[in-house]
Amino acid sequence: MPTSRTANPGPRRRWGWLAVALLLLLAGCSRPAETYGIRTQQYGRLFEHFGADTGAMYGRILFPSEYLQRSALISLDGKSFVSNLDGRFLIEDIPAGPHEMTLHLKGFEPVQRRIMVQADRYNPAGEVHLILARGLVIGRTVDEKGRSAVDIPVRLTPTNETVLTDKDGIFQFVGVNAGAHELAIPDERYFMPSQRFDLERGEQRNLGIISVSRVSRPSGSATAETAPSGQR
Hints:
4-stranded antiparallel beta sheet, 2 domains, elongated, Immunoglobulin-like
């Protein structure tokens, strides 16, 4: 008498339960329609926050004009993310709780926003409207004899914009945002005393005359030579 063969339903049943569990999970954390079409970025490495309460955050960075609109660098708790060209962004796997989102783009006022991320939810960060920076920083570099220090690279942080001094030793930075700044020379052959200052929104700051010297060795020798200068 032939033995009846019963199909093993085990694998099919397991896949069925997994599908149901996935549907239930998606139902509890429905994705907003405005997040479709955004490149998803992860807050941590794969499985870094596995088992922890996490959520997602989305929003949009808007420039003052559609002609300026582009992708923007976003910092969330010191981690860097990039928005789409239209300014939209989506970050997943963020631990539940408060987070600091900041933007520090050259030519625009800085933005700092505190975001509360709830677990198993897509949390809206809203629209961030950037404002053009209209600050100005100007100064003049001279050597130890008071002559104009010409063609010296001068850098302004935190934007790291660098300019060269002109034939009169003058430098200027246009469109500087508010906040703390530091002036430095990104060339170890030259030395400039520390120049740190705070700028108000739209402020025009004249740093006056700054003495610059040239060191004989990259490591910083006590023996200094005068910086390149132009005759006045």
